[in-house]
Predict the 3D structure of the following.
Amino acid sequence: MIILKTVLFVCTGNTCRSPMAEAIMKELLKKHSNYDVKIISAGTVAMDGQVISKHAIEVMKEKKIDIQEYETTQLTKERIDEADLILTMTRNHKEQVLRILPEAKVYTLKEYAGNVDSEQEPVREIQKIQRMIEKKKVEFYKENKEKIESLRKQRENLTKDLENVLMEIQNLEMKMLKYIEDEQREITYLQNKNPSIDVLDPFGQSAEVYRACADEIEENINVAFKKILDNH
């Protein structure tokens, strides 16, 4: 069992969704004083020190939670390293975290909460295809290991042939992409059928949309928090 010390929420600009999630989780923690965990949030394109969305402040005030003094924080490798559990607002945010740190323990909030409505089958199919892709990648690199290693050595040692070597490597990568294109196409199709794993983005919309977003986050935070307590 992993003892959680830090939970990180991630969205895009860090001006509404992840700060709301952070604040709601902190409120839940106040009722469990024996559970010591740090709750933080960050944005994939945020700048440190920006102010929070006015609509986000408004709808959280309705929940008797004050986030007026909150300032945005940029997502960095250091903040990802700090977190024992990362909960993102969308699949895209999750993918961005994994690009920075592939071994990160990261889920979308709704994925972690298990709240994906009736779309479980596409999720299972996506996971199955992703496993197949990883298997085929291993097979591909194993079959081409000698050639790839030879090309890399040439790239390092034979600068005069560098352009040709890079071209051959790119050709291999293109062949690999061709090798898995059917699976990638099927993942795209299934993801388009499965939008419910993402939390609604209210940016630039009305207070009512922010209110719906906050309610959706709170619903999933409650489930995720119970899961964290059960595993602690």
User: Anything to note?
Assistant: The radius of gyration is 21 Å. The mean pLDDT is 84. The chain has two domains: 6-117+196-231, 120-192.
